[in-house]
């Protein structure tokens, strides 16, 4: 009886140490992951009757755990939250100590943009990154910024 | 349970020593959590102060009634309290860093901690049964 109780107590301590160790490892590795974006470019494509929105997002993994999987979703939404156009990119993994750049190109039809503008709705660019830390912990981050397409629509 | 005054003092000291562990853990959490990452949106069924106080009281009783059946009961209550709180938090936290909204799902780590508490609870129950059998 005593031996069983001691073994269980030992197992409990091992599990506590494992969980705390994992937390420290994940926390220190996550703090070394950097996400940066380069300016949003907006241009008009008369042939496609579309507004082309381009930007670049770079994820650099300076930590010691692989980021796996990595999903990036970018969308143009209006102020009601309706998705006008969307694009998803995903890669299996960003290895520790390496980085990956996502070149995002979104095509927004001129009709959709005009509809939103005539309804007094602003256009927003939403970007969401979903990553897993070595498959142990999932994290997702999103940001929403205003999109100035009015100049291209006259 | 007839204890001499010196043993009572010793037991109070052990109880306070254990209660200080809960308070130290709470203070460490306060210091280590950066202010910018205020984990405000993490669902907690009770506030952290109440949890720390409850844990401190249970740890005090666990130390005071050390090696008695009441001590085992306090240990079991502590494990159950931690398990319930961990299970209700769900391991999800969300916070905001400079207009970036971040959500972290650490349910695997929470599962390991719950398993640790369950094993500790099993150990407490086994040793309590053993003690009662001996008595």
What would the keywords be for this entry?
heterodimer; A: 154 residues; Immunoglobulin-like; 4-stranded antiparallel sheet; 3 helices; 7 strands; B: 135 residues; mainly alpha; 4 helices; 2 strands
Describe this structure in words.
The complex is a heterodimer of chains A (154) and B (135). Chain A has helices spanning 2-30, 110-118, 150-153, and strands spanning 33-45, 50-61, 67-78, 83-91, 99-109, 123-133, 137-146. By secondary structure, chain A is an alpha+beta fold. Chain A folds into two domains: 1-31; 33-153, Immunoglobulins (Immunoglobulin-like, Sandwich). Chain A has a four-stranded antiparallel beta sheet with strand order 4-3-6-7. A three-stranded antiparallel beta sheet of chain A has the order 1-2-5. Chain B has a two-stranded antiparallel sheet with strand order 1-2. With 135 residues, chain B is mainly alpha-helical. The model of chain B is unreliable at 36-40 (pLDDT under 50).
How many strands, which pairing sense, and closed or not: the largest β-sheet of chain A? 4 strands, antiparallel
Predict the CATH topology of the largest domain in chain A.
Immunoglobulin-like
Instruction: Classify the beta-strand content of chain A into a percent band.
Output: over 45%
Percent of residues in helices of chain A comes to 25-40%
Distance between the termini of chain A: 83 Å
Low-confidence stretches of chain B: 36-40
- At the fourth level of CATH, the homologous superfamily of the largest domain in chain A is Immunoglobulins
- Global morphology of chain B: elongated
Strand segment tally of chain B = 2
Instruction: Provide the succession of SSEs of chain A.
Output: HEEEEEHEEH
Order of helices and strands of chain B: HHHEEH
How many angstroms does the end-to-end distance of chain B come to?
13 Å
């Amino acid at each position: 009886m005593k031996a069983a109780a001691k073994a269980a107590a030992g197992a409990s301590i091992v599990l506590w140490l494992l969980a705390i160790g994992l937390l420290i490892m994940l926390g220190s590795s996550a703090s070394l992951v950097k996400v940066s974006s380069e300016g949003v470019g907006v241009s008009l494509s008369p042939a496609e009757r579309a507004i082309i929105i381009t930007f670049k997002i770079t994820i650099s993994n300076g930590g010691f755990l692989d980021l796996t999987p990595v999903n990036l979703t970018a969308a143009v939404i209006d102020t009601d939250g309706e998705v006008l156009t969307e694009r998803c990119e995903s890669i299996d993994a960003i290895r520790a100590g390496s980085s990956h750049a996502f070149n995002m190109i979104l095509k927004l039809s001129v009709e959709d943009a005009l509809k939103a503008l005539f309804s007094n709705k602003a256009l927003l660019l939403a970007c969401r990154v979903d990553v897993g830390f070595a498959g142990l912990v999932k994290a997702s981050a999103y940001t929403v910024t205003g999109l100035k397409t009015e100049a291209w629509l006259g | 349970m007839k204890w001499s005054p010196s043993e009572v003092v010793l037991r109070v000291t052990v109880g306070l020593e254990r209660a200080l562990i809960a308070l130290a853990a709470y203070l460490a959490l306060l210091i280590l959590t950066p202010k910018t990452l205020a984990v405000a949106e993490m669902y907690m069924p009770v506030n952290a102060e109440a949890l720390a106080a409850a844990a401190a009281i249970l740890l005090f009783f666990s130390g005071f009634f050390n090696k008695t059946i009441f001590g085992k009961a306090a240990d079991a209550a502590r494990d159950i309290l931690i398990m319930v709180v961990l299970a209700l938090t769900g391991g999800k936290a969300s916070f905001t860093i400079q207009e970036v909204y971040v959500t972290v799902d650490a349910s695997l780590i929470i599962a390991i901690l719950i398993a640790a508490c369950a094993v500790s609870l099993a150990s407490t129950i086994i040793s309590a049964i053993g003690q009662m059998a001996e008595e």
